[in-house]
Design a protein that fits this description.
The protein has 14 helices and six strands. With 370 residues, it is α+β, with helices and mostly antiparallel strands. It has two domains: 166 residues, GAF domain (Beta-Lactamase); 180 residues, Hypothetical protein af1432 (Orthogonal Bundle).
Length: 370
């Protein structure tokens, strides 16, 4: 017995829609691959308009004080005008949905006293019908997602289920972005604190981490390094001397078996303090070997030539320039010429020849770089 293939029914009686499934999978896949929250929410809003056959959509998020909703994304021709407006929770239909935590369908807004007509007045859009659902993440209200003016009314229970699925994706996108932003904020502030501690760990160290990082990163770019190389050099430039902070802590010294710390041990101490922070993994070889010399007479490993990690060759040169600036008593007006002479004199012995050429060009052509 033969015949045309049939489409199996989905939950709720709706036929399985391959296009719908692919749309949802596409959005779900973007949650981990795209850090741009506005792009993700606009994609979800556009999908909601298309899949629910609606003229417009909006995604409103809860304000920090939990008292109102603001328009994060508003689709349709008049959406841009709404992004400066807020809606108190409990007011309007979206505010009611936020307050009660459950979906609401209004197929004729003229008959619903909760309808907040001021948004239509501000945007010029005429809302005839709407479907709004709450956005939750682990029980916490994130916002409200709504679609407006179904072209073939009314909105149905199946529409509620579909918009709720999209709202769940939006909730995950918002929460992921907030977590990432919080982590970045925390890390950047911790980095500032560590830099401040390094600056007071020894005399004349103020601004040393930032100046080192700035020049070293410029050399990385000039030598064709990629974004990862640049980022690892940025961290290494800022944190390469954190070991001096550890030298002042008896507990840390005892943990690594150092009783009388000496200069040659500070790169290893720096690495010991930073190891375990995964995002700094690529910076650790740079930090560990930034006092090696091209001729093999450096420390801590007496590495020679190509044995020295490329980043360490760059940072090592910059560190010598910084030592010249901080400790040699060179007048500022003479510093650049003295620095150029210093690294040219060490080319092929103390320094990697290639980095000398690049550093000299940068110092001679870019005013204010170092």
């Amino acid at each position: 017995m033969s015949g045309a293939p049939t489409t199996p029914p989905a939950a709720g009686g709706r036929a399985f829609d391959t296009g719908l499934a692919l749309e949802l999978f596409s959005i779900a896949g973007s949650l981990n691959s795209t850090p741009d929250l506005d792009f993700l929410l606009e994609k979800i809003g556009s999908a909601a308009e298309r899949l629910l056959d609606s003229e417009a959509s909006a995604i409103m998020l809860v304000t920090d004080d939990k008292r109102a909703l603001f328009f994060k994304v508003a689709g349709g021709s008049a959406g841009a005008k709404l992004k400066t407006m807020t809606l108190p929770i409990g007011k309007g239909i979206a505010g009611w949905v936020a307050q009660h935590g459950k979906p609401e369908v209004v197929n004729d807004t003229k008959t619903d006293p909760r309808f907040a007509g001021q948004f239509d007045k501000a945007s010029g859009f005429i809302t005839r019908s709407l479907l709004a659902v709450p956005m939750f993440f682990r029980g916490e209200l994130v916002g409200v997602c709504e679609v407006l003016n179904k072209r073939n009314p009314p909105y149905t229970p199946e529409d509620i289920g579909l918009l709720s699925a999209l709202a769940n994706l939006a909730s995950v996108a918002v929460t992921n972005t907030r977590i990432i932003q919080d982590q970045k904020n925390f890390f950047s502030h911790i980095l500032e604190l560590l830099v401040g501690m390094i600056e007071i760990s020894k005399p004349r160290m103020v601004d040393h981490p930032n100046r080192t990082s700035r020049l070293a990163c410029a050399i990385v770019r000039a030598m064709g390094g990629d974004d990862y190389d640049y980022r690892m050099m940025y961290y290494a430039g800022l944190l390469h001397d954190i070991g001096y902070v550890g030298f002042k802590n008896p507990r840390m010294l005892a943990e690594v078996g150092i009783t009388n710390p000496v200069e040659e041990q500070h790169p290893l101490m720096s690495v010991r303090m930073l190891e375990g922070i995964r995002m700094l993994d690529g910076a650790l070889p740079i930090i560990k070997h930034h006092h090696e010399r091209w001729d093999g007479q450096g420390f801590p490993g007496k590495l020679k030539g190509e044995e020295i990690p490329v980043g360490a060759r760059i940072l090592g040169l910059v560190e010598v320039l910084e030592d010249l600036r901080m400790n040699a008593g060179v007048p500022p007006a003479e510093l650049r010429a003295k620095a150029v002479a210093e690294i040219k004199g060490g080319k092929g012995a103390r320094f990697w020849p290639d980095v000398v050429d690049v550093a000299v060009e940068l110092l001679e052509t870019q005013e204010g770089l170092w």
